[in-house]
């Protein structure tokens, strides 16, 4: 009887379920939207009950599409955004919102309400901060916890469990409050290399009450990724998901790490197996840049090094851009001609990106090369701050070169300049990694951005790296399914499962023409100078 593994991925806007065979081929996928509340610009909240309900709908839909019975699923893996879930007595949701509504019990990863708390934490210069690039981000959990304590004391007092969203999903599925080494090391300051929390850190930042009862509220059972949790699915969760009780459930990962697991370990005959020369680029609402090494690399402004967070026994370094897909959408759909653009897309049955890419090809007919279209248009893409390598959430976006012109071609040019700026941000991260011990030469790309050929070619041309796409494009779902396969003992380790289930697909080579490379070198200098200019304005 054939065996299948289920990957469940909770992103910023939806829950997805994908079913894979032992060779990593996806049989079916279903997507279910999830609710998000946004207000006062930096506040972003979700509901753990709504997310679990969306997971249940997605799983049942995937089973139906694949025409499989529940008994065919031999293992389950979860991944999700690194959002903070708050539960009270009897696992009831507790509000993290000014509205006081209990349904709104998740502070989403992109929520920046804790900027001041992060600033105060960084001022302590505590030893653990060197494991997050020297500066903790407001997107991580301890600044958010400190914000909760200071601003919603009633929620703080009533809270019984604080969970990363991937760990919540495993808790809801198994009834076991097992925490993932991935989430606790990457977002909570757990020391994976020595297997403990640092109590002095919590005391110093004002969260000493979390030390009580052996860190019960934030996790005293921290396990390696892929390990089987408890006795698998409980009867209740199995009924909700439409699966069998006892189905093995693997220790979870953050969604970006699932994408890394889905791509970075694949066998490529033309490449050496040295993972330190590879970068996993997970391009979605934001972008994550995942690199691993045998020894820890301490890199200012870049998250990590995290021990065993993505590949067991290896140190993870994580660069990132806080807004990429969301930034492109903002640039496009805030333009006055966006309604006209949407109508064109609907009429032609094409995406707005396909329309814009085609428009750029027409505009480029009279240029030496397409990239030259943006020679007078420059973007600093820090509309939601900079995650790395500047590690400054207070930075803002800038555009230079706007004209008194208003057309779809203007949207196309601004979109193109923004896309290039995102690629310059990736180059900045890779250059920083390579200056501190890495030798990145190849990018393994996945996520929504990897569906855009212009996004891929610009990244290849600007970074000088070849880009390899996975044969299975849904790499995050595959990464989660890999964890399910390991939990079910189909494979003995995460690396073994990665090699067996992840296969290479298309390769994008960089254009190395001298004129194009000189152009990008000049624009990259402008990219770096724009940030210096912004900081200069701030001082003035």
In short:
The chain has 540 residues and is an alpha+beta fold. Among the domains are: 255-322 and 438-508, ATPase, nucleotide binding domain (Nucleotidyltransferase, domain 5), CATH 3.30.420.40; 325-430, Methane Monooxygenase Hydroxylase, Chain G, domain 1, CATH 1.20.58.
What characteristics describe this protein?
540 residues; 38% helix; Methane Monooxygenase Hydroxylase, Chain G, domain 1; 7-stranded mixed sheet; 19% strand; 5-stranded mixed sheet; alpha+beta; 18 helices; 21 strands; Nucleotidyltransferase, domain 5; globular
Would you give an account of this structure?
There is one protein chain. With 540 residues, this protein is of the alpha+beta class. Among the domains are: 255-322 and 438-508, ATPase, nucleotide binding domain (Nucleotidyltransferase, domain 5); 325-430, Methane Monooxygenase Hydroxylase, Chain G, domain 1 (Up-down Bundle). The protein has 18 helices and 21 strands. A 7-stranded mixed sheet has the order 15-16-14-13-19-20-21, with helices on both faces. It has a 5-stranded mixed sheet with strand order 3-2-1-6-12. The chain has a 5-stranded antiparallel sheet with strand order 4-5-8-7-9. The termini are far apart.
Secondary structure layout:
Blueprint: E1 4-10, E2 14-21, E3 26-33, E4 37-39, E5 43-46, H1 48-66, E6 73-80, E7 84-87, E8 106-107, H2 115-123, H3 141-151, H4 153-158, E9 161-164, H5 165-174, E10 179-180, H6 181-187, H7 199-205, H8 212-215, E11 222-223, H9 235-241, E12 253-254, H10 255-263, E13 278-283, E14 287-293, E15 303-307, E16 315-321, H11 325-333, H12 338-348, H13 352-363, E17 378-380, E18 398-400, H14 408-434, E19 442-446, H15 453-463, E20 466-470, H16 475-487, H17 494-501, E21 504-508, H18 514-539
Parallel strand pairs: 1-6, 6-12, 10-11, 13-19, 19-20
Antiparallel strand pairs: 1-2, 2-3, 4-5, 5-8, 7-8, 7-9, 13-14, 14-16, 15-16, 17-18, 20-21
Helix pairs in contact: 2-3, 10-16, 11-14, 13-14, 14-15, 16-17
């Amino acid at each position: 009887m054939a065996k299948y593994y289920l990957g469940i991925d909770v992103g910023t806007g939806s829950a997805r379920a994908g079913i894979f065979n032992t060779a990593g081929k996806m049989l079916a996928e279903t997507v279910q939207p999830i609710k998000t509340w946004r207000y006062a610009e930096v506040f972003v909240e979700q509901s753990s009950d709504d997310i679990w309900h969306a997971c249940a709908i997605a799983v049942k839909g995937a089973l139906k599409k694949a025409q499989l019975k529940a008994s065919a699923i031999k293992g389950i893996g979860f991944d999700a955004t690194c959002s903070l879930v708050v539960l009270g007595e009897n696992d009831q949701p507790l509000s993290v919102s000014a509205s006081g509504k209990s349904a709104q019990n998740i502070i989403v990863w992109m929520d920046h309400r804790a900027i001041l708390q992060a600033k105060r934490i960084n001022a302590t210069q505590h030893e653990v901060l060197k494991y997050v690039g020297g500066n903790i981000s407001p997107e991580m959990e301890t600044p958010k916890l400190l914000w909760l304590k200071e601003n919603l004391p009633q929620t703080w007092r009533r809270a019984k469990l604080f969970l990363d969203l991937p760990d919540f999903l495993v808790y809801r599925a198994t009834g076991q409050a097992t925490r993932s080494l991935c989430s606790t090391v990457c977002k909570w300051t757990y020391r994976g290399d020595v297997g403990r929390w640092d109590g002095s850190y919590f005391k110093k930042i004002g969260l000493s009450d979390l030390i009580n009862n052996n860190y019960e509220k934030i996790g005293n059972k921290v396990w390696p990724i892929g390990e089987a949790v408890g006795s698998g699915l409980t009867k209740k969760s199995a009924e909700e998901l439409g699966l069998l009780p006892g189905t093995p459930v693997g220790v979870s990962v953050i969604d970006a790490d699932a994408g890394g697991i889905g791509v970075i370990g694949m066998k490529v005959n033309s490449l050496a197996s040295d993972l330190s020369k590879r970068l996993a680029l997970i391009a979605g609402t934001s972008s994550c840049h995942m690199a691993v090494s045998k020894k820890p690399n301490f890199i200012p402004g870049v998250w990590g090094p995290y021990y065993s967070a993505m590949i067991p026994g290896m140190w993870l370094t994580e660069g990132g851009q806080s807004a990429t897909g969301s930034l492109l959408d903002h640039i496009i759909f805030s333009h006055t001609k966006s309604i006209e653009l949407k109508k064109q897309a609907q009429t032609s049955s094409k995406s707005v990106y396909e329309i814009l890419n085609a428009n750029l090809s027409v505009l480029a007919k009279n240029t030496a090369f397409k990239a030259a279209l943006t020679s007078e248009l420059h973007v600093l893409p820090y509309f939601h701050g900079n995650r790395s390598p500047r590690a400054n959430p207070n930075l803002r976006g800038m555009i230079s070169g706007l004209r008194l012109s208003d057309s779809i071609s203007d949207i196309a040019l601004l979109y193109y300049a923004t896309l290039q700026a995102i690629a310059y941000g990736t180059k900045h991260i890779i250059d920083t990694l390579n200056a501190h011990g890495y030798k990145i030469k190849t990018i393994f790309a996945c996520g929504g951005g990897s569906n855009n050929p212009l996004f891929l070619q610009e990244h290849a041309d600007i970074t000088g790296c070849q880009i390899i796409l996975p044969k299975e494009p849904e790499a995050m779902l595959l990464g989660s399914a890999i964890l399910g396969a390991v939990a079910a003992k189909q494979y003995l380790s995460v690396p073994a499962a990665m090699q067996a289930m992840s296969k290479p697909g298309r390769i994008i080579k960089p254009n190395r023409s001298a004129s194009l490379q000189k152009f990008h070198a000049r624009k990259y200098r402008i990219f770096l100078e724009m940030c210096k200019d912004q900081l200069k304005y701030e001082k003035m």
